[in-house]
Amino acid sequence: MKKWLLAASLIISAGFLAACGGSDESSKGESGKEKVVIGYFPNIDHVPAMVAREKGYYEKALGENVEVEYKTFPDGGTFMTALKSGDIDAGLVGPAPVMNNFSNGADVKVLAGASSGGTVVVASEKSGIDSLEDIEGKTFITPGIGCTHDVQFETYLMDLGMDKLASARIGGSLKHVTGNPAQYQGMFESGQVDLAAVPEPWASTLIEAGAKEIISTDEIAYGQTLPNTVLAANGKLVKENKEVAEALVKAQQEAVDFINNNKEEAQTIAIQAIKDLTKQELDKNLVAKSMDRINYTTEINEEVLKQFAQSSFELEFLKEEPELAGLVDTSFLN
Hints:
CATH topology of the largest domain: D-Maltodextrin-Binding Protein, domain 2
Pfam family, one: NMT1_2
Strand content: 15-25%
Radius of gyration: 20 Å
Distance between the termini: 29 Å
Helix content: 40-55%
GO molecular function: ATPase-coupled transmembrane transporter activity
Number of strands: 11
Keywords: Cell inner membrane, Cell membrane, Membrane, Signal, Transport
CATH architecture of the largest domain: 3-Layer(aba) Sandwich
Main location: membrane
Largest sheet: 6 strands, mixed
CATH class of the largest domain: Alpha Beta
Number of domains: 2
InterPro entries: ABC_SsuA_sub-bd (IPR010067), NrtA/CpmA_ABC-bd_dom (IPR044527)
Shape: globular
């Protein structure tokens, strides 16, 4: 798509754009302006995108000649498909889908962190699970196969050194299914699944409804050190339109600063945004508890990402040992 090439010129000068000879109509929004599309999920670790959307940070950073469109996703796999195809230009996603796709040749970049922490493993009341000793042969659910929460949970189990406490995919006894976290409560109630490795606010929502916390955010693999959500962009955008990439990172930083300085308002924004997307209105106290589990920051530890990718390889989500050189580009962070 040609929109990346043109958006920087629009930001600098509309007149210069006209001299360049126009653009592909598919890259324009309804207003006729060039369009940048941002993706994110209805999870508490994606609140920076919700705040940036509500406060107009992306629009302000990109300039009045660029139209911003938003798309939401249930999991990292669908997000990455959209990012690679150019249906979205950038957005928030867990690091595992980005690294897995990069390792398989996708031209994608990580530009900044967004949040860390927040992954919890919970068991349904019907499961009969009171501790890890009870999970053999049970069914667990994550948003996607090889997603960030899946890798964290399976790495934790792998570190225990007990072969049966692993996914059946790699010879263990646990059946693994996937689904949208907003639907986990119904799946718990129906007995379809026993365990969930889940992000906030769905972990706190399930616990509030009677689920038992089995592995806490602090205990799970890479719990507080891993960037649980990152700002990812199409590599072509970063190479051909650095001004747009810089603007996206600037908006991300503004959103993170707002969350950390205005916690109650950020919680209100998150509640409304999630209600708009899922039709579920979350309790304010529950959201406050969820957000307290998470550290919102644009900082990113590349060494931890490498260790996490190695875990993905050892769990056989990656066919080859990962080489992540060139994935992270923090040059746009101040």
